[in-house]
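INPUT
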Amino acid sequence: MVTGRTIDQGVAKEKGKASKEYFESVAVCFIDPQDLKKIGIKEKDNVLVSTKHGSVVVMALKSARAPHLSVIYIPYGPWANVIVDPETDSVGMPSLKGVPAKIESAGDKPLLNLSELLTTQFRKG
Amino acid sequence: MPIVKSVTCPVCGCLCDDIELTVEGGRIVDIKNGCAMSESKFLGYGGEHRILKPHVRKNGRLVEVSFGEALRKAARILAGANYPLLYGWSSTSCEATRVGIELAEEVGGVIDNTSTVCHGPSTLSIQDVGIASCTLGQVRHRADLVIYWGCDPWSAHPRHIERYTSFSEGRFERSEWRGYLTKTKALAVRKKVESALRRMLNKEMPAAPSANHGLGSSILKEGRKLIVIDVRRTRTAEAADYFLQVEPNTDYELLETLRAIVRGQEIDVGKVAGIPVEYLEEIVDAMIGCSFGVLFFGLGLTMSKGKQRNVDAAICLVRDLNRRTKFVIMPMRGHFNVTGADTVFTWQTGYPYAVDFSLGYPRYNPGETSVVDILMHKESDAALVVASDPVSNLPRRAAEHLVRKPLVVVDPHMNATAQFADVVFPSALVGIENEGTAYRMDHVPLPLKKIAEPSEGILSDEEILRRILAEVKKLKRNRQRKVP
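OUTPUT
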């Protein structure tokens, strides 16, 4: 899994993190079309992305610029943060790119909006 | 309608300073020269997500309070903490950051900026091996070979290519924009033909061959050349004359192989990082054959396996190339004033980020005094976040500790972090509602203009921090008086 910026995410974050545009631009996972076919998932289906640090449901989107077999891309944001590697290797920087991940159909698990995601992931004091 | 010219854009590290804004009735109604992110910020800054009043958490809920009440509560939190964390600083002015550092020293906390999770490893590397760099003006006028490694400026710095590199009209180098348009049109026609064939034959065509590498003669063309090296094909890669698709987490091997080829050593394997060695030899020929080359690198190097060692190798590659030609290297800084934050931190403390004042003097040890490590080790007991949204940007397990402890947020927006705060101060947007100074990614300082008045009662980050600092000092004086 690679996380990073997209132009849609950049535009939406300026509109506001609670905006529909932000949700639609970051709660997604770009997957190579051949990988989508291999795991039997259609575009815009929800997928469960899991790493050893957690799992999160996001919407599967076809990569516009394939091929990049076995590489998935999730834009920076609260959804990606659930599953990135917080280990800094003693230099202060967590590992946000090149994290081994597994994708599968989300089944009954829902795609949470920002407010629901924050409520499930964090608890105040 | 009045038009304000030469406005500096407060979005990304490009700090484009040719923005023209049309202002009507105190509001920005039109923008010229801005990218999509710039338009979104300048035209949408007054949106529904702005915070208009100070808030304090009472009975588990954020409620509107007076500025004075929020100020007293924030000062009590920060002055009462043993090891407070002061984080953010990359999306505010240098003037605000200067006050923040004084506040960190006053409360004996750790102050860190967002470099720590972007180009922090690059800074460590530059401290280790140095850097050969220049300004973006030099690149615009002189660079005949541009390399983007592990970055996608088309998405993250949308005008970088147009203003400073391949599509800019330099004094000594021409823009490659027309060539790109021709290539794009040819690509569109090819896609249409393939699509039509697919429909006619009613079956799946084999996927187009990967354009990983080997774009034929384009690397030998006259004029500016653009090479992109990334783990995936991006919009920037599509504009390139040559694209190398590197396997994830293998940048270090690739960089060291390029160094070996530059030094004339034989490579005894067929492929490195998934790329045939003959293509690497072509790249090295282009590097050595250029008159002025520049390597821009992004988080593809700093966030993947190897981290600062990847950057070490990239800088050393440029050092090796300087024995054969002229070559420079520059990190693609993200937030509009992350370079300014590093610069002010360095002026004031001697260190660019992750500065710990808990012993009464500045101490710097990324990996120990950096925000993710402090939060993962659950060391901080309070935090002040200024112009940043760590709950959206840090790994969940780190943000978890941040929100559990008393939290003060200074931000124009009700972002994810503000929703968990104990005190929230609404602030004016620097570069739109108040002025200040920011540093471009090449360390050129530029003025940020005030274009419109903020809503009533909304102060700048700098002014809010000054007031918090004064209140903290007052609290500490009062406590000292009470001690017999």
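end of record. Residues 2-121 of chain A form a domain with the Barwin-like endoglucanases fold (CATH 2.40.40.20).
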